[in-house]
Amino acid sequence: MSTRPDLGGRLGIRLPILQAPMAGGATTPELVAAVSNAGGLGALGAGYMQPEAIAEACRAVRRLTDKPFQVNLFVPDSGPNEGAPAADANAALAPFRAELGLPEPEIANRFAPDFARQAEAALSADVPAFSFTFGIPDEAILRAFREKGVTVIGTATTLAEALTLEDTGLVDVVVAQGMEAGGHRGTFLVDYEQGLVGLLPLLQELQAKLRLPVVAAGGIMTGQGIAAAMRAGAGAAQLGTAFLTCDECGIPEVYKRTLETGRDDGTALTRAFSGKPARGLRNRFIAEMAEANPPIAPYPVQNTLTKDIRAAAARQGRPEFLSLWAGQGVALCRRLPASQLMAALEREMAAG
Ligand SMILES: Cc1cc2nc3c(=O)[nH]c(=O)nc-3n(C[C@H](O)[C@H](O)[C@H](O)COP(=O)(O)O)c2cc1C
Known about the structure:
Elements: H1 7-11, E1 17-19, H2 29-37, E2 42-45, H3 51-64, E3 69-74, H4 87-91, H5 94-100, H6 115-124, E4 129-133, H7 139-147, E5 151-156, H8 159-167, E6 173-177, E7 183-184, H9 199-209, E8 214-217, H10 223-231, E9 236-239, H11 241-244, H12 253-259, E10 267-270, E11 278-281, H13 284-292, H14 301-305, H15 307-316, H16 338-351
Parallel strand pairs: 1-9, 2-3, 3-4, 4-5, 5-6, 6-8, 8-9
Antiparallel strand pairs: 7-11, 10-11
Helix pairs in contact: 2-3, 3-6, 10-16
Flavin mononucleotide is lined by residues 20-23, 26, 45, 47, 72, 133, 155, 177, 180-183, 217-220, 238-242, 325-327, 329.
Keywords: Detoxification, Flavoprotein, FMN, Monooxygenase, Nucleotide-binding, Oxidoreductase
Cofactor: FMN
GO molecular function, one term: nitronate monooxygenase activity
């Protein structure tokens, strides 16, 4: 077991379970509050949200729980966030739009919300914990959270990334994201393929080399899995895919139904939906984009370009064109209210 500071005490949670922040509508205030009320740490994935929406969502969570929760943001990299969208990447999407009966969309020329203003919204909302992925925010931002007593949580996919987070002296907790994880890769120091380290080697390395407490993420679906991660050095586990099929989760029904058919050999990493590598259920969009190999715009441009396709696919119940983010443990997902999933995880942890 870890000799690091007690993570549960630090985060104010009874169970060592973090519901992963999942941007894009999954982590509704109802889901966040249900997890926190059950003794875990609920998380609002606010990466795509405008500052006003973050403030409102935090108020909504607070109406449903007085327990701690966290807000998560995407650290921007140096890629373009304004200007004309890439015409060649957009042209490659025409066949999908045609099949969905979509017109050529008006593409916004601003692609992602302003990070500093998002962080300011989270700071003003007095959240107990703040987490981030895709990089490290500016020192001034980290310092502002720290000075307010907010627990700061960074994401690492390699030992070097974890040590870089620790070296800032402004991060309290590191989420170790194994290659099994659903959704976007948090890798920020190396090419994403080099950052595909399995959760178990990553946990063992961090156990040996990192002083900060570690949260294990990637493919964990059961209480036994949480217990195993903790034996390998984690102070808690972060589960994303396991919460996607909860009643309170905001993803479209067709996405939930497709997750129930998911298999360990059925996921793939793709840049085709957003421009950033992410793991999801392999479907026609991923396969045809891989086959055609067209230019793909960098994140967040590609994400903006495919927005109408993903929205229409959800409306029309067409999972073959949806981004079905999921981890390698997807076959173990359960259709339950979040409180029941939390109770099951607690029972299994005790048994495991
Ligand atoms: C649908 C989905 C959306 C995600 N969005 C985010 C996000 O907004 N921020 C973040 O830090 N991680 C995000 N992740 C990654 C999770 O934090 C975590 O690493 C992952 O869910 C763990 O693997 P698992 O899905 O197998 O449990 C997302 C994962 C999924 C499945």
